[in-house]
């Protein structure tokens, strides 16, 4: 049926004359509905109308996500549209156009009569068209030339297919293909079929997958402020999305292309698609848009639907960015500042002043002092008061790591360096501490053969991974600490003299609590406030008798022990004042020397009874101490047995990893 005949039939409909020609029934019915809706068939411009419901959808986050996903999909037809001088529109479920793609000149012509973003294609607004028929029939539809109701559309051919979730039959929107009627050929139905089949595949694999949507929501939420490049790859290896960081720092303009065509260096990521397994963080080399080699870290994780891999997210992280954000990524943070170092004792105040000065220069610092004096608190304060405060603070207990593993922990290793080495190797703590601080606690316990390697790192400010031969420059503030007499260990050939001098540039010797008793009052008040808050109590002071005990007590555990005593007192105290009977029994014994032998004192017991109780308590403490020593020895043996694998050690001991870490800190 030619165009002129169709026009005559349309005129007959408008004048209520009988129609005898062969016209598709769906077109005739649509004409009738358009006529009844008082659509103007002579219109030369379409009404630019957007329903309120459609407008509200455009501001909905979930809808914005689907819109962005659809844009990626529609872009795949871009080259085809250019060649055909055609366009594709994507509409909401109520036929409001929200995306347009195609030949630029052709789109400009369509937009000139309001066929574009914001136009609603329902029959009641623009009359007969393919989108309106698909909307009513839920089938692929096409309308050719004069089959359209409004004159302005009669020079065009439209085809439409709904975008539907095939599981719950939810219609998300419609894809509308439009070309000039003169350019419409026998191939256009094939194009419509192609669009239909690809659309079904796309929707089946993308929109009905909640896990995928959640992962992509995370991707888009972090896209603008992320410090890494993100590439979303579908199950066929095509790039369907990147983020601005990647576009500006590495390469851009490769959506819809094969991932391996753009990044052939990252071929191993295909294992992620094939096996569904995460590819852990590793160091790789890729080329940027200028062809320059870029040293970068990469990790990859799959996206799955019903157990089947449907894509993967590849993350590319610049080395400098990784090092800068190690504190956030690995929870390597320093929480204490110089304001948290409580005390006004003259000697303590002098040491604090020295530490403040030491924080401002790059010299190595050695902190000495008995257990519990606050060596790590000083180290954290120095970090936060220095030029490396924005970097990570990494604390290493040299006594807690088996000697076979301390080298790889500190300096890292390359792939194949030893049996069980992680694929791609692993950076050590010195590399991760770049632009930050590394705190070597219990430095006196470092294995002798590792001390020469540490000395070289300190002198050269470069680190070479185990098994490797390429040194990496590092900028690290080095603080070490010990409760041992390093001179004695040097004399017994357990510590290198040259390393001692290298570490001991600035020495900070923290006095034990028994030598700064004038700080006890200040410390007690500080801890009372702290534990009142955490335990929701209102203890305001300690009794004079308790202060007397504190002044006479030897404090073998130093400030840490005082802290624990106050925490216990606040927890057990039934009034607003900590009294003697709120103290540990071994400390209560210190008070007995001031009480007559026959006087009833604590808990209805005599001094003699309490004395023997104290002896028994001490024996129990000694037994508990020996148990802890044996337990730690057992843990170290298992760490050696399992090559430092703490998960396996915890499993054999029947404890959690968290408990294991706590036991390693004893």
Automatic annotation (TrEMBL):
Q: Does the keyword Nucleus apply?
A: no
Task: Name the GO terms of the biological process aspect.
Answer: regulation of DNA-templated transcription
Gene3D superfamilies assigned to the protein according to its UniProt record, in alphabetical order = 1.10.8.60, 3.30.450.40, Homeodomain-like, P-loop containing nucleotide triphosphate hydrolases
Alphabetical list of Pfam families matching this protein? AAA_lid_14, HTH_8, Sigma54_activat
Query: Which domain of life does this protein belong to?
Result: Bacteria
Q: Name one GO molecular function term.
A: sequence-specific DNA binding
Q: Where is the Sigma-54 factor interaction domain?
A: 341-571
Which InterPro entries does the entry link to?
AAA+_ATPase, AAA_lid_NorR, GAF-like_dom_sf, Homeodomain-like_sf, HTH_Fis, P-loop_NTPase, Sigma_54_int, Sigma_54_int_dom_ATP-bd_1
Record flagged with keyword Cytoplasm: no
What PROSITE patterns does the database record attribute to this sequence? SIGMA54_INTERACT_1 (PS00675), SIGMA54_INTERACT_2 (PS00676), SIGMA54_INTERACT_3 (PS00688), SIGMA54_INTERACT_4 (PS50045)
Q: Which residues form a coiled coil?
A: 615-642
Q: Which UniProt keywords apply?
A: ATP-binding, Coiled coil, DNA-binding, Nucleotide-binding, Transcription, Transcription regulation
Cross-referenced PANTHER family, in alphabetical order?
A: C4-DICARBOXYLATE TRANSPORT TRANSCRIPTIONAL REGULATORY PROTEIN DCTD (PTHR32071:SF57), TRANSCRIPTIONAL REGULATORY PROTEIN (PTHR32071)
What is the protein's name according to its record?
A: Transcriptional regulator containing PAS, AAA-type ATPase, and DNA-binding Fis domains
